[in-house]
């Protein structure tokens, strides 16, 4: 089966950002309680070995039982696993520089694992690699320090998994999204932004050098495609990462702020409250993700 009937240049494909965020195989930890989660960013995929899960959101309700895969809808969800359910859980991103997921469609999917046997095999290979080299880590795998050769082994295993995932999505009628810009200068600007560590200041000089654009022209392009300024786009990326760190790590508030370039915890708290209407401590206590719409609205290609 061909992965795409709409060829694009290899350069454009190479702008995809793929990252394994976590993977684990074991007993689900919610103990049968109903949990609220934000699954709007990235992909959340579960293989049910034992038990079941029911997920509900504004897009509808779906249930998966033993021997089935569930792809979570891209939405705020409530989910409930049967007691002592055992699952293979994978959270990963595969996105264009705009933040759009690789495939269109927000609805969830449920299918029989026997229909996509290579997907399960490659997922298990990826899980074994993580267990072998990061045995005590699962939720914040993406924060682990590894050597470059080991990183490439993870990327290779993830690529094999993504090939099968892509074929499954096409099989179930999903189409590739296109991030909607054919302006190479905007693509370069996005690449500069995503390549810059989030602990660094906004990379304006780097962008100007690579694109030849003035700040005014750059923001004009960003407004045309995303409805926001380049700086607000940068802040949205930082807020998304901040939320992820608050929800999936045990880093202190000060450590999260330092990771994002704030030398003073008070400055970090003020910045977070400005963009989310609550403090980092309040957000971690309540455990639900805030919307980034206060910064930029829904970022999508035009």
Description:
The protein has two domains: 162 residues, Sandwich (Jelly Rolls); 113 residues, Arc Repressor Mutant, subunit A. It is built from eleven helices and nine strands. Helix 2 runs antiparallel to helix 3.
Briefly, what is this?
The protein is an alpha+beta fold.
Key phrases:
302 residues; alpha+beta; Jelly Rolls; 20% strand; 11 helices; Arc Repressor Mutant, subunit A; 5-stranded antiparallel beta sheet
Q: How many alpha or pi helices?
A: 11
Residues in helices, as a percent range:
40-55%
- Helix and strand succession? HEEEEEEEEEHHHHHHHHHH
Task: Give me the secondary-structure category.
Answer: alpha+beta
The CATH class designation of the largest domain is Mainly Beta
The end-to-end span amounts to 30 Å
The shape is globular
Assembly state of the chains shown: single chain
Q: What name does CATH use for the topology of the largest domain?
A: Jelly Rolls
| Biggest β-sheet description | 5 strands, antiparallel
Strand sequence of the main sheet, in spatial order? 1-8-3-6-9
Q: Return Rg in Å.
A: 20 Å
């Amino acid at each position: 089966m061909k992965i795409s009937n709409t060829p694009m240049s290899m350069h454009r494909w190479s702008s995809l950002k793929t990252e394994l965020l976590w993977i684990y195989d074991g007993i689900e930890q919610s103990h049968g309680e109903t949990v609220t989660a934000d699954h709007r960013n990235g992909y959340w995929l579960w293989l049910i070995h034992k038990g079941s899960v029911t997920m509900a959101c504004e897009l509808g309700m779906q249930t998966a039982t033993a021997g089935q895969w569930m792809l979570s809808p891209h939405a705020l969800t409530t989910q409930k696993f049967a007691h002592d359910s055992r699952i293979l859980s994978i959270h990963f991103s595969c996105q264009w520089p705009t933040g759009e997921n690789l495939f269109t469609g927000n609805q969830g999917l449920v299918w029989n694992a026997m229909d996509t046997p290579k997907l399960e095999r490659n997922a298990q290979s990826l899980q074994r690699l993580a267990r072998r080299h990061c045995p005590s880590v699962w939720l914040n795998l993406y924060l682990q320090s590894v050597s470059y050769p080991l990183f490439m082994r993870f990327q290779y295993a993830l690529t094999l998994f993504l090939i099968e995932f892509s074929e499954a999505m096409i099989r179930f009628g999903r189409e590739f999204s296109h991030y909607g810009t054919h302006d190479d200068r905007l693509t370069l600007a996005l690449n500069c932004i995503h390549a810059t560590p989030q602990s660094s200041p906004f990379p304006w000089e780097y962008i100007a050098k690579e694109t030849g654009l003035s700040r005014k022209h750059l923001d004009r392009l960003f407004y045309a495609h995303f409805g926001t300024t380049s700086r607000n786009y940068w802040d949205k990326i930082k807020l998304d990462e901040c939320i992820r760190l608050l929800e999936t790590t045990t880093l202190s508030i000060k450590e999260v702020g330092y990771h994002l370039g704030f030398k003073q915890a008070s400055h970090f708290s003020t910045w977070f409250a400005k963009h989310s209407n609550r403090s980092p401590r309040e957000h971690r206590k309540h455990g639900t993700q805030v919307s980034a719409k206060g910064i930029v609205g829904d970022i999508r290609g035009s």
